[in-house]
């Protein structure tokens, strides 16, 4: 009897525990569904506020900070929404047989590259290292609920912001087709743009003898030229200055006042009396600035009219010492904002939730691309041209191979390295087992006025639309937004 009673009690306890777990699971599922619906509605409200703000001239710094916080929160919301959506729609993703799981582990053992660490060290995990956390593992029900509550509180607290926003003057609108695609407009730099414009339009104190100088610092391909170009095209800036010129070279060494002015390109000329004779000089450099060269040129430019300004950009942090105001440091986009950009350009009008497997692959691509605008643009082009999960998986594999091969040779993230000193290696994304590879030498930049653009692009080679033998010049990448830079390089095809 005692044994029978014990077994009955144990069975009842097990049933009770199972019932409680089942009930908790159902409650959690119901809560997640409610939070997902609420998050979608909140994101629609935040999109409405942001879109209205982007149609108006917002100059108040507090409002700009609020707007940036709302954008960042919305990007995080979309990121959480999409990662949870992929988890829910791919229940079998973690339930593969042992062989598939082992292959997936090998694919995931990519190197740890840090574009945010100045040392840019590369670490290849050993066989005993734990598997790196990937995007799909980043969203839990608790995080979802926290996301909903914080976004709700932020939107509820923006009533005054919306009222003040309606008093801001409407902005000059570019043709509507510019807004049809995010990859054809500057993305993620609205706050920085307004900060630069605020510096340019700020009135100097009476009796100021020095021209205002704003340093803009950031690594290669981070968007310094794109940001400056967008500022120089702004109507308020063009109406404020009588002349906008740009100097773009490696450095200022050996430049005199005469040679410097001769090498400056006129970006805009304004003959309206309201602009006076104020000048805006943009100096875009790659290397550091020689102290004596800067002093020599800056002393020559002191004769410029009151209110004239100078913007200097470089990859070198040393230019900060020449500024008369706090420098602007450009960094990679947060992963949430980068995901929003990439999924919009890759999926186009398709909803990623309708293609959960492809969305999962795209999320892993975002992990690998480390915020690179060039990789995002080329990757989105390849994915749109081959819109199926098998092709996307092959592109992801090729991307990982490309990064690991080049980083192992040069020790840096390929989008950061001084590419003139090292060749890059790449392969076809069409063939399952490529039999040839491309060596890319001496990547260099040309402006939009450069007419001799090679007829063959790197995308043509990757997609095997062209593969002529020998060594020849190709178009590495072409920017779709001002200043429309073209990047060319010499390509050599070799057998594996």
Give a description of the structure:
- There is one protein chain.
- The chain has 496 residues and is α/β, with parallel strands linked by helices.
- It is built from 15 helices and twelve strands.
- A six-stranded mixed beta sheet has the order 5-4-6-7-3-8, with helices on both faces. The protein has a four-stranded antiparallel beta sheet with strand order 9-10-12-11. It has a two-stranded antiparallel ribbon with strand order 1-2.
- Residues 93-114, 116-138 and 174-180 have low confidence and may be disordered.
- InterPro entries: NB-ARC, P-loop_NTPase.
- Pfam families: NB-ARC (PF00931).
- This is NB-ARC domain-containing protein.
């Amino acid at each position: 009897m005692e044994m029978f009673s014990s077994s009955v009690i144990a069975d009842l306890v097990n049933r009770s525990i199972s019932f409680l777990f089942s009930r908790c699971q159902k409650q959690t599922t119901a809560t997640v569904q409610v939070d997902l619906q609420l998050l979608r509605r909140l994101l629609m409200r935040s999109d409405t506020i942001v879109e209205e703000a982007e149609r108006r001239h917002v100059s108040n710094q507090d409002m700009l900070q609020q707007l940036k916080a709302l954008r960042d929160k919305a990007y995080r919301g979309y990121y959480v929404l999409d990662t949870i959506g992929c988890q829910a729609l791919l229940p079998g993703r973690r339930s593969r047989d042992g062989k598939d799981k082992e292959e997936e582990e090998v694919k995931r053992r990519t190197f740890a590259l840090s574009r945010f660490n100045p040392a840019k060290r590369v670490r290849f995990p050993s066989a005993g290292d734990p598997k790196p956390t990937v995007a799909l593992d980043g969203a839990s029900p608790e995080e979802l609920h926290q996301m909903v509550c914080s976004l709700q509180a932020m939107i509820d607290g923006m009533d005054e912001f919306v009222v003040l926003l309606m008093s801001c003057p409407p902005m000059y609108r570019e043709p509507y087709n510019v807004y049809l695609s995010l990859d054809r407009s500057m993305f993620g730099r609205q706050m920085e743009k307004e900060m630069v414009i605020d510096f340019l339009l700020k009135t100097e104190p009476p009796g100021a003898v020095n021209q205002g100088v704003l340093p803009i610092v950031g690594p290669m391909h981070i968007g310094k030229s794109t940001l400056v170009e967008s500022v120089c095209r702004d109507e308020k800036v063009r109406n404020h200055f009588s002349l906008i010129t740009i100097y773009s070279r490696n450095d200022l060494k050996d430049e005199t006042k005469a040679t410097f002015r001769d090498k400056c390109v006129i970006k805009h000329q304004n003959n309206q009396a309201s602009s006076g004779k104020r000048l805006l000089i943009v100096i875009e450099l790659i290397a550091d600035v020689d102290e004596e060269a800067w002093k020599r040129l800056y002393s020559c430019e002191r004769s410029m009219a009151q209110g004239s300004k100078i913007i200097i950009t470089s990859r070198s942090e040393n230019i900060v010492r020449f500024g008369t105001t706090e420098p602007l440091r450009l960094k990679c986009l947060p992963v949430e904002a980068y995901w929003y950009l990439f999924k919009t350009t890759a999926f186009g009008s398709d909803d990623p939730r309708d293609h959960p497997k492809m969305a999962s692959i795209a999320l892993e691509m975002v992990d690998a691309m480390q915020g690179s605008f060039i990789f995002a643009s080329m990757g989105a082009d390849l994915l749109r041209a081959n819109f199926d999960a098998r092709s996307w998986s092959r592109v992801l594999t090729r991307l990982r191979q490309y990064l690991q091969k080049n980083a192992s040779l040069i020790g840096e993230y390929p989008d950061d390295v001084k590419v003139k000193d090292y060749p890059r290696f790449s392969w076809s994304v069409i063939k399952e087992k490529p039999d040839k590879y491309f060596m890319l030498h001496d990547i260099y930049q040309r402006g939009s006025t450069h007419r001799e653009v090679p007829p063959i692009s790197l995308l043509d080679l990757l997609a095997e639309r062209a593969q002529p033998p020998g060594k020849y010049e190709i178009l590495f990448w072409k920017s779709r937004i001002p200043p429309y830079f073209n990047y060319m390089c010499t390509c050599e095809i070799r057998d594996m």
